[in-house]
Design a protein that fits this description.
mainly alpha; 9 helices; single chain
């Protein structure tokens, strides 16, 4: 069941619209980091995100990108605090809640994942992946 859940989580996170809902614009400070993440240049994105976090430690979008970059590097443990902080700062942002829930499901921390997954489902009840994961966990 654990392998199935991991594959389901990864499959749910593949749509680019979920992770990167809009094309970054050149005048947007995290735009370069988003572009690097989209291109799979994780190390370069991490450097850009670190600089952004130094200047904007309470920006939910930058914290989300830091979590996404850590998760993309295979480090869910490092991603979690960034995403948890982003969820506090922007509690109604689906992609933050959904990615937080997904990374908590992978190491079998359902008791911590369910509140984030429920919040993501509440924010966007029509999103099929959030509903599927929630149904599997219940």
């Amino acid at each position: 069941m654990g392998t199935y859940r991991l594959l389901l989580v990864v499959a749910c996170l593949l749509p680019a619209q979920l992770l990167y809902p809009a094309q970054p614009s050149a005048g947007d400070p995290p735009a370069e980091a988003e572009r690097l993440l989209r291109g799979g240049q994780i190390d370069e994105a991490n450097r850009a995100i670190t600089q952004l976090l130094d200047r904007h430690p309470y920006d939910a979008r930058i914290l989300y990108l830091a979590g996404l970059a850590a998760y993309s590097s295979g480090d869910a443990t490092k991603a979690e605090p960034y995403l948890a902080k982003a969820a506090v700062l922007s509690p109604e942002t689906f992609r933050i809640r959904f990615l937080l829930a997904a990374i908590l499901l992978v190491p079998n921390q359902q008791h911590r994942a369910l509140p984030a997954l429920e919040a993501a489902n509440r924010i966007d009840t029509a999103h099929p992946d959030a509903a599927k994961l929630l149904a599997i966990e219940y």
